[in-house]
Amino acid sequence: MIARRRKALPAAALVAAVAFSLYHATLLPGVDFGDTGSFQTIVGEPRLTPRDAYPLYFAVGDLFVRATRVDAARALNLASAVEGAIAAALIVLVAAELSGSILAGAAAALLFATSYTFWSQATIAEVYALHAIFVSLTLLLLLRWERDPSVAKLAAFFAVYALGFGNHLSMVLLLPGYATFLLLSAPGGWRSMLRPGIIALAVACAAAGALQYAWNLAGLWSLPHPPPSLADALRTFWFDVTKSDWRETMVMNVPRAVMVDRIAMYWFDLRQQFGLVVPIVALAGVARLWVTDRRRAALMVLLYAVNFLFAFNYNVGDTHVFYLPSHLIVALLVAPGAVAVGRPKGLRYVAAALVAYAGVRAYNDFPALDRSHDRRPTEVLDQLTADVDDQHAILLTDLNWQIANGLSYYAKAVRPEVSHARMPDVLLYAPALVDANVAVGREVFLTDRARTDLEAAFGPLLTTRPASKGVHKLPMEIAELPRGTRYVLCVLRPSRDMALEPMELASTFRLLTGQNAALPADDYVAVAGVIGAPPRTIVASSQPFRRGVQVDGADVEIRMESWLSTDTIRRMGFGHVIVNRQHTLIVERGLSFVAFDERGRAIRTTYRSNIFAPVPRYVCYR
């Protein structure tokens, strides 16, 4: 057994190297919107508040920022790539422990490492790659304790499990499976796990793990209005760390009317990660474990079921990332499944086929998951903050929260001279703020929603006009392109806080195709062709699709990679346009347009009615 474990280490190292090379080659180079932008802003700060949570994640991120000496955004993105590779290595060891086969373990790890959602999260600043490390490592320690029970190994399991809570509180979802397995596998019977010494050990490890959050608790006393008492601080701490306001509205709060749609979404998501083959092999893995070791079978089924049910009933805009732990269990079950399918002498061929299958899927998904040239967040923020600095102008904003998080990092690390404030924070004294800045020669810029807030509060007391560098209508941009230019136009149902402009959309379609016909009104619409000629293809669907088409000699693949009824947040985009294996366009909700050359290089990329659309600005004065 020890010899086999040692032999598994080179395989784990090789899988980690393959995974890291994929993640590093597709790594986002800088800032992103949403939670990623928030993480990139907070990392390196000496103070954490309870709302920031994730103390272990930020501690690890701090190490990467200091070690790499690159900007915080790239350092934190790189940390995810390294963590994803380490997770892949650990999965080899866990899967080999479950199946008794190093080849099957390597195949399982490669299948998860190249799965669509995990790969996308391993190229940006996010918590899920580190979470995969703790899920895999605790499972490995638990299985090795079962094989050779000792207090030292049990303590190691308790300690690592408690440490994992510093990265993500969803470690609690592993508790039913782990507790059941401990009780079933205790060498002295289940009562032996309830001995005072074992309970004291578990409590001590849990308390030590909880100490990570002392960093967050201490942050309350550095706020402008610190809590008046320790009891009040603890109430605030618990409310913020556990996101109590979110839990009340999102956890176990999916309407029954959409349950059928949620099932369809999960089936789409599972196939997006693994195709049809892997879930079937995983079912064979469950059957094999049930025959060979029912305690391990129960453990894996419970881990899958609890994590799946939580994600299934979590009414949040990025449900797909919460399925990741259940996808990890599916991948792990492939290893015993390969043994079951390949026995007695065909295991190496089955494992080799699964590795090849992972390679083919990685080859197909690589262009879509490549964010190495994605500067869209920076370009939006460049446009938003143009001509704004503390000498000449200030910017008052009321932005979508995802853009606002990106702006926080941008104004901290990229252009610290940008002077900006949230309109809700300054609305009470906005006229005085405007007067004071105008008096010293600074312009006051407003975003669209900030202008609406200001006018609603003060009416004619303040005047606004569009900034000199306004946002052009899309038809004007397309009119600048020569006839015969290759293009793809994608229109996806926008999120609730965005809206398409029907007249602009109709004019755009007419300019592109020379036709007066209306664009289809389905959830997913894609049009491809050359400007000024009838389109080569129009695809409209209520569900995601993939479609290939040739446009003037260029091989174009249009991929819709989201489920719009549940997905309001997709860090990797809601779809992709791949031209000659070149990542030409990341498709977002709303309108996404790209004109490209024969090699697939984008000539012009434009977004409307989504977070990557140009932000209109206004000048405010008395």
How would you describe this protein?
- By secondary structure, the protein is of the alpha+beta class.
- The protein folds into three domains: 2-369, no CATH class; 376-470; 474-612, no CATH class.
- The chain has 26 helices and 14 strands.
- Strand 10 and strand 11 (582-587) form a beta hairpin.
- Helix 1 (2-25) runs antiparallel to helix 4 (72-99), helix 4 packs parallel to helix 18 (324-342) and helix 5 runs antiparallel to helix 18.
- It is globular and about 80 Å long.
- It starts with a helix and ends with a strand.
Throw out a few tags for this protein.
14 strands, five-stranded antiparallel β-sheet, five-stranded mixed β-sheet, 26 helices, 3 domains
SSE topology:
Blueprint (H helix, E strand, L loop, with lengths): L1 H24 L8 H9 L12 H14 L3 H28 L2 H12 L2 H6 L6 H20 L3 H14 L10 H11 L10 H15 L3 H6 L10 H12 L2 H7 L8 H16 L2 H16 L1 H19 L6 H4 L1 H19 L4 H23 L6 H9 L8 E5 L3 H14 L5 E3 H4 L3 H10 L3 E5 H11 L4 E4 L7 H6 L6 E7 L9 H12 L10 E7 L6 E5 L4 E6 L2 E7 L14 E5 L2 E6 L2 E7 L5 E7 L8 E5 L1
Parallel strand pairs: 1-2, 1-3
Antiparallel strand pairs: 3-14, 4-14, 5-6, 5-12, 6-7, 8-9, 9-10, 10-11, 12-13
